[in-house]
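Tokens as discussed.
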């Protein structure tokens, strides 16, 4: 089981999977805990400031389940080490806040036919709306054909100025508007993480197929689901899927350092 991103969403997912009995984890995240994370990083306390998020998550997992086997990748998933660990995993949870990384993970998991559950939350302070969604990529649909990524994602990621502006926002709230603590999204993250883990559970136990798309509109208090893709399939579902090494997803590794600099 791989969890990519051990922040607000990923820390919930790691905790729930541990309680459900998952024994083998691969945790991928290059970030460190900061003061502004503490109001949503499940399992972290003030003593953890400055520690790697994967290390905090590993400790939280081992506290509940001493026998768990946890592998850590302390760098971006778009790295040789990250790719190698993802390819060795049977299921991947994506808990990142970057659409460019989602795009690459989607393609990697399509190429190697690895089930991929992508989690995301959103807040629009201007519109007073908040919510989130999960997307499950298993051959029926993917992030691209479900239109779950912002248009021109890769182009934006390539433009340093726009990327910096994006990073200046957390969950749609300007950083300057939040003196020390980050936004109060722990319960929203909990809802989305729980929806994702419950779909995973339904799929793995054979209770029912996981929904390919579940959307929580917090402003309305509703969850709506989609079981089949509206569009039959996209390039990634139709052409990339199952191509494994031939899909050459590794081409992103060569350009990634220049994107993230
Ligand atoms: Zn698709």
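Sequence:
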């Amino acid at each position: 089981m791989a969890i990519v991103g051990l922040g607000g969403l990923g820390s919930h997912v790691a905790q729930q999977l541990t309680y459900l009995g998952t024994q083998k984890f691969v945790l991928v995240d290059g970030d460190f805990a900061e003061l502004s994370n503490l109001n949503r990083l499940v399992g972290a306390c003030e003593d953890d400031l400055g520690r790697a998020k994967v290390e905090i998550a590993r400790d939280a997992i081992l506290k509940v389940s001493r026998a768990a086997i946890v592998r850590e990748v302390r760098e971006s998933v778009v790295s040789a080490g990250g790719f190698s660990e993802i390819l060795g995993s049977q299921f991947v949870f994506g808990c990142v806040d970057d659409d460019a990384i989602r795009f690459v993970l989607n393609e990697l998991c399509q190429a190697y036919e690895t089930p991929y559950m992508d989690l995301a939350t959103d807040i629009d302070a201007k519109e007073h709306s908040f919510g989130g969604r999960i997307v499950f990529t298993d051959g029926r649909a993917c992030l691209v054909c479900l239109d779950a990524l912002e248009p021109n994602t890769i182009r934006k990621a390539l433009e340093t100025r726009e990327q910096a502006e994006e990073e200046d926002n957390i969950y749609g709230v300007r950083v300057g508007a939040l003196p020390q603590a980050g936004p109060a999204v722990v319960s929203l993250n909990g809802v989305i993480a729980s929806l994702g883990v419950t779909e995973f559970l339904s799929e793995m136990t054979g209770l029912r197929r996981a929904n390919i798309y579940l959307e929580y509109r917090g402003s309305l208090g509703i969850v709506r689901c989609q079981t089949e893709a509206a569009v039959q399939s996209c390039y990634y579902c139709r052409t990339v899927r199952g191509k494994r090494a031939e899909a050459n997803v590794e081409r992103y590794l060569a350009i990634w350092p220049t994107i993230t600099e």
